[in-house]
Design goal:
two-stranded parallel ribbon, single chain, two-stranded antiparallel sheet, 4 strands, globular, alpha+beta, 34% helix
Length: 152
């Protein structure tokens, strides 16, 4: 449906985005792909369709739900929710990561205590298997946050 404003997940619902979609798919083996553009142009739809077509397990982290002045616990909760939504594709690798608990259909990422895991370590461990990690609305990560991303 072309006039539906919700993000699309299928190529047949996209309009005139074949070039952008093919660019993502042909570069999916690169370590980083950035999709930019003005607001409401369909970036999320192109990302969703690419993730559905690529045939590689993926985790989609939607940063829109981060509140202003979010803290580390908010960020880890967001990642936990994204991992939970992809649990069926990632359960084997997640079970082997220290600092990750799987309780039913929910993934908990520990960010405190002896079993804590850093974001760098989590992404390194996920990177051991071919997995795409997509951050939608990633600009929210730099706005009003109490987490310092540039620290070594």
């Amino acid at each position: 449906m072309l006039l539906d404003e919700r993000p699309k997940t299928s190529r047949v619902d996209l309009y005139d985005r074949d070039e952008e979609l093919n660019d993502i798919l042909s570069n999916i083996d690169k370590p980083l792909i950035v999709v930019t553009g003005i607001r409401r142009i369909g970036k999320t739809s192109v990302i969703n369709v690419a993730l559905n077509e690529v045939g590689i397990p993926y985790v989609l982290i939607d940063c829109r739900s981060l509140r202003d002045n979010y803290g580390r616990s908010d960020l880890y909760r967001l990642i936990s929710n994204a991992l939970s939504s992809s649990l069926d594709k990632l359960i084997d690798i997640l079970r082997r990561i220290r600092g990750i608990s799987i309780m039913g259909n929910t993934v908990e990422v520990r960010w405190r205590g002896r079993e804590q895991i850093s974001l760098a370590e989590l992404f390194d461990r996920l990177n051991e298997k071919r997995i795409v990690i997509a951050l939608d609305e990633a600009q929210r990560l730099r706005v009003h946050c109490r987490v310092r991303f540039l620290m070594p």
